Amino acid sequence: MNFPKVGSNIEIHSYKHNGLIHRIWEETIVLKGTSKVVIGGNDRILVKESDGRHWRTREPAICYFDAEKWFNTIGMIRSDGIYYYCNLGSPFTWDQEALKYIDYDLDIKVFPDMTFKS
Questions:
Q1: pLDDT tens digit string along 15-36?
Q2: Contact call for residues 89 and 69 (beta carbons, < 8 A)
Q3: Mean pLDDT of 62-71
Q4: Computed over its alpha carbons, how large is the radius of gyration of the chain?
Q5: Which of 36, 101, 105, 118 has the maximal Cβ count within 10 Å?
Q6: Which of 32, 37, 45, 33 is nearest to 76 (CA)?
Q7: Exposure of 10 by Cβ count < 10 A (0-12 exposed, 13-18 middle, 19+ buried)?
Q8: How many whole angstroms separate alpha carbon 109 and alpha carbon 118?
Q9: How far does Cα 42 stand from its chain's mean position?
């Protein structure tokens, strides 16, 4: 099976447990891509919601996806520090169309001072 190659642009698709699409991130550059881990970077990319709305991310971000762990993490790089967002989600799959996972809507946001909110 082929996996995303370093330097390639991929889409990221999150789904709900019922199999319906939840959100699509249109461009993420693969910084590391293996059968077990994908690390990507993006900045001010278009995000499409399942209800037709769309928006752009506000800052550069690094995202980590694991093929064996039930979470993924995004580090958002802002002027006052790095904000971490951890999604409880299924391990990722890759099918040449996009990196895909199920989002279970259980999230933790960690602020630069290491306080957090769930």
A1: 999 999 999 999 999 999 998 9
A2: no
A3: 98
A4: 14
A5: 101
A6: 45
A7: buried
A8: 6
A9: 10
Given a contact cutoff of 8 angstroms between Cβ atoms, the answer to whether 27 and 11 are in contact is yes
44 noted as active-site residue: no
Domain 9-117: CATH architecture, name and number where available:
Beta Barrel (2.40)
In angstroms, the CA 5 to CA 70 distance is 23
Count CB atoms within 10 A of the CB of residue 71. 18
Amino acid identity, residue 16? Answer: K
Q: What is the pLDDT of residues 29-59, one digit of tens each?
A: 999 999 899 999 999 999 999 999 999 999 9
Tell me whether residue 7 is exposed, middle or buried, using C-beta atoms within 10 angstroms of its C-beta: 0 to 12, 13 to 18, 19 or more. exposed
pLDDT value of position 96: 86
CA distance 37 to 16: 21
Give residue limits of the domains in the chain: 9-117
Cβ proximity of 52 and 40 under 8 Å: no
